[in-house]
Design goal:
Largest sheet: 6 strands, mixed
CATH topology: Uracil-DNA Glycosylase, subunit E
CATH class: Alpha Beta
Structural class: alpha/beta
CATH superfamily: Uracil-DNA glycosylase-like domain
Shape: globular
Helix content: 25-40%
Number of helices: 8
Radius of gyration: 16 Å
CATH architecture: 3-Layer(aba) Sandwich
Number of strands: 6
Strand order of the largest sheet: 1-3-2-4-6-5
Amino acid sequence: MTTPLQTLENEIITCRKCPRLVAWREEVAQTKRRAYQNEDYWGKPVPGFGDPNARIMVVGLAPGAHGSNRTGRMFTGDASGKFLYPALHRAGLANQPTGDEPGDGLQLKDIFITAICRCVPPKNKPTVAEIVTCLPWLAAEVDRLPKLQGFIALGRIGFDGIRRMYQIQGLDLPKMSFGHNTFNQLGEDLPWVLSSYHPSQQNTQTGRLTEEMFDAVWKKAKSLLK
């Protein structure tokens, strides 16, 4: 029997609403990176994945050109995932510290991982119009997680996208600020938001985001769960 999340996933992967992103994701999948010349790229929108009973939704920016756009699974096959999954394992939210490709045995507990945009954008910069077009997919995933209590926004665009998703629905949100390990409340009967610097190489290799800093986010998130 197909679950509501699986039905949604099948809808997401057929999306072609943003011509620029469709052209770019398919071009990357065709030209490939030299290291992956013998691999078949996914080259389609990437749905979220994880525990259908998740109480925490992790929201990133978009698939990486040669990461999720290649593998078809969020935060898989690139440096960001190699920083994220060990942290989830240390926090007891993943059964293993690696997430290299679909079918590798990775299982998430209490976590659902997704992104603001489902297609890889050129230079990792989606336009505002593309973000707005894609946000209904995020809202649909939220609707299908009945036990959701909070978000972890990985990066400023993830943080702003969560807020925009609710504003599009006509909700008046309180003033909120982005910062690493910063907690914000969206409003009564809405999930909370805990923000983190994005685990990109730009942040992890420069020391802007360390393992200790990242671990503190997951520890705090677990402490917030009812």
